[in-house]
Design goal:
- By secondary structure, the chain is mostly helical.
- The chain is built from 5 helices and 4 strands, in the order αββααββαα.
- Among the domains are: about 40 residues, no CATH class; about 40 residues, Irregular (Zf-an1 domain), CATH 4.10.1110.
- It is about 35% helix and about 5% strand.
- The strands form 2 sheets. It has a two-stranded antiparallel sheet with strand order 1-2. Strands 3-4 form a two-stranded antiparallel ribbon.
- A hairpin with a 7-residue loop joins β1 and β2.
- The longest helix is centred in the N-terminal third of the chain and has 24 residues.
- One of its GO terms (molecular function) is DNA binding.
- This is Zinc finger A20 and AN1 domain-containing stress-associated protein 9.
């Protein structure tokens, strides 16, 4: 009896294949689904992506066709032109993936110093790369901020 009740329960809960199978509308050989307009999952995804791209291409065209007035164009400041005699203001920074002392590649294991440089394992300590950061002054400032000055009152209260 227990076996019969188990058999009846499993028959009710098993998944059943759909009675009517529909081939994909793109004739790719897979079966389609009515919720995806009779397309298979791959064809539906491709169709959906194509439609999104078309919508994105059409939206900027509408924005470009907006009329612009002559006053708004002339009111915009002109960019400054560099003369041939002026050097560019861009400062050439050293690569952050190389040691400043030996120019060795440091990768992800580079050590950043308080002086602003990146150093390899051999030059990571301030004594080894000639660091110009004032550690003593930095420590004094930290202590001064953490411990405000306490002064006694000049006149005693009665």
């Amino acid at each position: 009896m227990a076996q019969e009740s188990y058999k009846n329960e499993t028959d009710e809960t098993e998944c059943q294949a759909p009675e009517k199978l529909i081939l994909c509308a793109n004739n790719c050989g897979f079966f389609g689904n009515s919720s995806t307009n009779n397309h298979c999952s791959k064809c539906f995804r491709d169709l959906f992506m194509h439609q999104q791209q078309q919508q994105q291409l059409q939206q900027p065209k509408l924005a470009q066709k907006a009329p612009t007035s002559l006053a708004s164009i002339s009111a915009q400041p002109e960019p400054a032109k560099l003369e041939a005699g002026e050097p560019s203001k861009a400062v050439a920074r050293p690569a952050t993936n190389r040691c400043l002392a030996c120019n060795r590649r440091v990768g992800l294991n580079g050590f950043k110093c308080r002086c602003g440089g990146t150093f390899c394992g051999s030059h990571r300590y301030s004594e080894l790369h000639g660091c110009d950061f004032d550690y003593r002054g930095y420590g004094r400032e930290g202590i001064a901020k953490a411990n405000p000055v306490v002064k006694a009152e000049k006149v005693e209260k009665i």
